[in-house]
Design a protein that fits this description.
It comes from Zasmidium cellare ATCC 36951. InterPro entries: HET. This is Heterokaryon incompatibility domain-containing protein. The structure is a single chain. By secondary structure, this protein is α/β, with parallel strands linked by helices. The chain folds into two domains: 193 residues, no CATH class; 68 residues, no CATH class. It is built from eleven helices and seven strands. Strands 2-1-4-3-5-6-7 form a seven-stranded mixed beta sheet, with helices on both faces. It is globular, with a radius of gyration of 18 Å. The two termini are 35 Å apart. 40% of the residues are buried.
Length: 270
């Protein structure tokens, strides 16, 4: 696992034996604006929104999350040019979110903490990859585009957090209403075992991904299965392989439930 140091923005590779405590991030990508691994040695370009966002995550953790010096950001902690590494990362990603001390969800389209309707309508709730980023972590702290704390979801956000930071208002009931995901699952992923594979598939209805195959790949960790990542295989083939992997684990998965977004009710009618 490759992590980014919050002090000097350098990358370092860790294995399970020496993995430090880390914060993990969740965000929507800016098209052609994101900082990649190859950008870091040359310094971030502050004219690009995605580069400013990486710096913002590092600054936020450095100033607000006590005892954490490392963060994981998908855009620059994965070598996107290496297909083997990308496939391995996608299969491992849910575990990385699960083991993080805290997940920081940056909602760029929420300008302030004073408008609840803006939070409910954030496009963050309509994306495929953000589903695992919502479900897996012990606690998710939602931040505005100005890096203000909106609130948090998670069991620990109501009592003691794994690390010291401001988690704000407990938002699990509101997030459950937006996403139609049970509060028990939002607060503690381990309760997922009480829900069928088809129930979990329903949580993804209406969510979109840029790459059509990612509609299947973003669900691997949620179903607890692994499979090779083959961009170019198409949505249908990726879905069928996902179904086969889930059924090989002993559950049934009805793909007819995974209707196109135009036939689904998106969160809050978005």
């Amino acid at each position: 696992m490759r992590l980014l140091n919050v002090h000097d923005l350098t990358l370092r590779q860790f294995n399970a034996a020496n993995l430090p405590k880390y914060a993990i991030t969740s965000h929507r990508w800016y098209e052609d604006q994101e900082a990649s691994m190859r950008d870091l040695p040359n310094g971030l370009d502050m004219s690009k929104s995605g580069h400013r966002k990486v710096k913002g995550f590092a600054e936020y953790v450095r100033k607000n999350v006590e005892g954490i010096e490392w963060i994981w950001i998908d855009t620059c902690c994965i070598n996107q040019d290496n297909s083997h590494e990308l496939s391995e990362a996608i299969n491992s990603m849910f575990k990385w979110y699960l083991h993080a001390q805290v997940c920081l969800a940056y909602l760029a389209d929420v300008p302030s903490t004073s408008d609840n309707n803006t939070f409910e309508r954030s496009a963050w709730f309509t994306r495929g990859w953000t589903l695992q980023e919502l479900l897996a972590p012990k606690v998710v702290v939602f931040l505005t585009g100005n890096w203000e704390v909106i609130g948090s979801k998670g069991h620990y956000s109501r009592s003691i957090t794994p690390v010291t930071l401001n988690v704000g208002k407990w938002l699990t009931p509101e997030v459950s209403s937006i996403t139609r995901i049970p509060q028990t699952v939002l607060d503690d992923w381990h309760s997922h075992q009480h829900f069928s594979a088809n129930a979990k598939l329903a949580w993804a209805q209406g969510r979109e991904t840029t790459a059509e195959e990612d509609k299947a790949y973003c669900l691997l960790g949620i179903f607890g299965v692994s499979m090779s990542v083959i961009y170019g295989e198409g949505r249908q083939r990726a879905r069928e392989r996902l179904r086969d992997a889930v059924q090989a684990s002993g559950e049934q998965l009805d793909l007819t439930m995974d209707a196109p977004a135009s036939q689904c009710i998106s969160p809050r009618g978005l």
